Amino acid sequence: MTNYHMSPEEFRANGHALIDWIARYMENVEQYPVMSTVEPGTIREKLPGTAPEQPESFKALLDDLDNVVIPGVTHWQSPNWFAYFPANSSPPAVLGELAAAGLAVQGMLWSTSPAATEIESAVLDWLVDLMALPQSWKMSGRGGGVIQMSASDSTHTALVVARERHDEPVDQLVVYASTQAHSSIEKGARVAGYKHVRLVDVDGKLALNTTALAQAIKQDVASGLTPVFVVSALGTTGTGAVDPIDAIGELARRYGMWHHVDAAWAGNAMICAEHRFHQGTLKNVDSYTFNPHKWLFTNFDCNVFWVADRKPLLDALSILPPYLRNGASDSGQVVDYRDWHVPLGRRFRALKLWWVLRSYGAKGLRHHIREHIRMAKELTQRLEDDDRFRLVAATDFALVSFSHVDGDAATQGIADAINLSGGAMVTTSRINDQTFVRVSIGQTRTEQRHVDKLWKMICDFA
Ligand SMILES: *Cc1c(COP(=O)(O)O)cnc(C)c1O
Question: Which of 7, 71, 349, 403 is least buried, going by the fewest C-beta atoms within 10 A?
Fold first, then answer.
């Protein structure tokens, strides 16, 4: 009987060739211009207008990685990457992705692959200890953790749970975050149907001002609205600012609001004890999210979402159609992760995180995060000592924010010149009507010499 499948024997040979290709990429990525400069449409033009009728060889596919794909790739895995936040990756994470793809299980229910669920729960319990989060967030407590695609998904999920706890119509419910909060909060609120999102003023350190928050809440209550959700940022995207989580938690408790901590990037630094004072006691926190795919050497997508109490989450999201019923679920003894987020189907994402944690060990992870932070603080010092530059925010973690004293054009000029040179990549943002350069240090293989090279470029283009 005819079949067109790649045989296991061919897969073995092609797979070896692909691993060789990826290893070569890892060896050479430092040499590529970081930012792709292709014109729109260039890559699409290299593709035929219709799908191939005849099967092609794997060699042809592999060749086009070099010919078609690479010219249109911006090299997030370059050690010269300082833009946005990193999209971390590492060899054990890549291999974990591959193993998960090979198994290709659907982990929607415990019974559809017990290993996928139990390894995920165990690894997220490990992280509770590694990050010194409340013990009750473990699966053995009232809470629990789940891997989602992105922090945006987790925040959206938390917003839905908070909405479902209230009987009032959604247009009477109010969500609070600071003006520096990530756009995913507004987006999640919009998708969840909220009509009122208050972006509260920040203080001199760009952290949420709790006096302004208390005032906004009082005003809303006086006009008959119900405060239901407040976000604390542990590391804002703009400058890495940290909101006063315990004080916000106190207000959340007083007004019966759901308190969500968005620790998307800086949460990773909580594996190092010296940074934990930033997150406080986490006493009045209902949910917490962070992205190993930003700073824990684990490929996108890998977001972690914890709830302090899983009951309201399951109340909000569980729907059991007859075709998903099974004895294990009915027994109440297992976790069915389909009830923990919007999608039904789910990949075995825990595998790559498990492999990263085991391959580096907590010791290795802490070492690299501390190195990134050390390099960021050192770069901050160099900027501070040079009167051409002004720091826009403190460097608590590994994000350096600065501007040129000559103003926006000079500041933007530095970033543009660095990016066009291909030697590194940075991004800019704006705060208080002022442009600033963001240097985010955290790519897996960034070393001191890469930061030294960046500093030289900053000076050359200043
Ligand atoms: C990056 C980031 C997000 C969004 O992350 P995704 O996983 O891409 O949705 C949310 N909040 C903060 C503070 C971030 O830095």
Answer: 7
